[in-house]
Write a structure and sequence with these properties.
The protein is built from 6 helices and 4 strands. It has 138 residues and is of the alpha/beta class. Strand 3, helix 4 and strand 4 form a beta-alpha-beta unit. The chain is globular.
């Protein structure tokens, strides 16, 4: 899939868990950009993915009280490298965790990101929408 994306200048959507260094090494060997979907790695590793041209997907877990790792990542990289995600039907935000996750819950993710970065919610929505447009050539 990476080869096809590279050949056709398409983004790669990567879901990697517990194998960040291996994932990084594979992606670094190719001329591709994309999204690190449902990112759960370290803030330091997120910076390395951003250097490769990847965006960091932030979803419901950013709102979970015990998920300091994602919030640290959020504060470590520039918002111009953040994508909003729902990971529907799973990974709902705090307060909705017993429910099926849908895009209606993006407002909670936006609210938490705005709070963490001391930004206006509309600005978060505008910037992350622009990020998606750049990545997907929209």
């Amino acid at each position: 899939m990476i080869g096809l994306a590279e050949k056709h200048d398409l983004p790669v959507i990567v879901h990697s868990r517990k194998s960040m260094q291996d994932t990084f090494d594979i992606l670094k060997a190719h001329d591709v950009a994309g999204s690190m979907h449902c990112y759960q790695g370290s803030a330091e590793m997120a910076r390395e993915f951003v250097k490769l041209g990847f965006y960091i997907g932030i979803g419901g877990p950013v709102t979970h009280a015990n998920n300091k790792k994602v919030r640290k990542t959020l504060k470590t990289i520039d918002i111009n490298h953040i994508l909003l995600e729902t990971d529907s039907p799973y990974l709902a935000p705090e307060g909705k965790r017993d429910e099926e996750n849908t895009s209606l819950n993006l407002k909670y993710i936006v609210g938490k990101i705005a709070d963490e970065l001391d930004m206006d919610e509309v600005e978060v929505m505008d910037l992350t929408t622009d990020n998606a447009r750049r990545l997907f050539h929209l």
